[in-house]
Amino acid sequence: MAKIGIFYGSTSGITEEIAMKVREKLGESLCDIYSMEEDFDEYSQFLEYEYLLFGCSTWGAGDVQNDWRDPVFEMELDKPDFSGKTIALFGAGDQVDHGTEFVSALGKLHKLFHGLGATLVGEFPNNGYSFEHSSALLNDKFVGLPIDEVNQSEKTEERITQWVESLRPIFVGSS
Ligand SMILES: Cc1cc2nc3c(=O)[nH]c(=O)nc-3n(C[C@H](O)[C@H](O)[C@H](O)COP(=O)(O)O)c2cc1C
Question: Ligand 1 centre and the CA of 68: distance in Å?
């Protein structure tokens, strides 16, 4: 088993692509990768890792991507202990057509895992984005990496690189 677990939910494949790039940049041998649709059975799989990267796009009006719904519901009920776990969040959204809830799913996951005792890392500056509201903002920064492939695909690569480099000392440096 690798040191880092990457779990992603992605309806049209955008967050999946981000997950693959993050894994490639961090180092493939360090990361096990799971599709929430195909490889995920129960949240106890998360607990096998000390370091976790969770990918989730935003759908509905600020909701988590479909494959995350049941596990989020179950964790809200069961309240598993994530203390000692280090978690970073990423996910796709659309700041133009869905600018009132831009990447808000990241905010929901942040609140959930923070409440379960995890250490959340991987905040990202909000400059360069333009939107009305996001539940993923905390102290004026995003709680994870937001990617907007619909409107700003030219910025994706650079944003992923910047984010992964900010995580490297925490996720890789301590190995
Ligand atoms: C019906 C619908 C609802 C959406 N709702 C939101 C939303 O609330 N917030 C947001 O940032 N993006 C929203 N989006 C945009 C998607 O998150 C975006 O297309 C993203 O790239 C999908 O990523 P995925 O392929 O990884 O699921 C919505 C898209 C659709 C079609």
Answer: 14
Q: Is the CB of 93 under 6 A from ligand 1?
A: yes
Does residue 47's CB lie within 6 angstroms of at least one atom of ligand 1? Answer: no
pTM above 0.90, yes or no: yes
Q: Along the 175 residues of the chain, how does pLDDT read in single tens digits?
A: 889 999 999 999 999 999 999 999 999 999 999 999 999 999 999 999 999 999 999 999 999 999 999 999 999 999 999 999 999 999 999 999 999 999 999 999 999 999 999 999 999 999 999 999 999 999 999 999 999 999 999 999 999 999 999 999 999 985 4
CATH number of 4-171: 3.40.50.360
How many Å lie between the centroid of ligand 1 and the Cα of residue 57?
A: 6
Q: Is the CB of 142 under 6 A from ligand 1?
A: no
Helix axes 66-78, 104-115, angle to 10 degrees: 20
Q: How far apart are CA 56 and CA 100, in angstroms?
A: 17
